[in-house]
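Backbone shape codes:
***
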Amino acid sequence: MDVLDRPAYYGFKQRHEPQLNPFGLRCCDHFGLPTPDPDRAGKFYEQILGAVELFRAGYSEDDRAHKRLRHIFYHVGATLIELVEQEDGMSYPDHTNPEGRNMNPHFAFQTTPECVAAFAAHLTREGIPFSGPRRHKNVSAVSVYFRDQDGNNLEVTTWEECPDSMIAPIDPNAPRGKSGGFMDWGAYAHNWRPK
């Protein structure tokens, strides 16, 4: 079936259908997020996303003598994230998205409908501003959007069916993207501190 002939609605089954890759690529092994402070960023990922540290480099005397940048690898579920110190002391969004105008890049973590609702409550308790849970057009996905302490755009999502009762009402007066886009990511900036 041609991509243009596919139905507009995609749900949990379609999301998880494996696709053959001519090069044998199976999944994203890890992604790196630049940060001015991997230790502080790591605390955010541990306390907010439940990340588990796998290993760190750049911390030994030898590494520091060779000017190796500090970086820490964390598991968030099956996803591996590398938090990488930057020579200029800035985060990626400082260069590419300083006012939160751009939707992308953003990084999404999959869960269940119950966990999406629980995660929104968790963000509320932590004092981190967010949007959601909100539905997407033409797909079954329901998401919560927020930012990390460095301004990276993050999402927790499910493609499973969700009851209407868990969907946050959309405030017509809520800040939208600067050019009328999806959302104003700048409105979700915060100054979270580790506990």
Notes: The CA atoms of residues 110 and 157 lie 5 Å apart. The first strand starts at residue 31 and ends at 35.
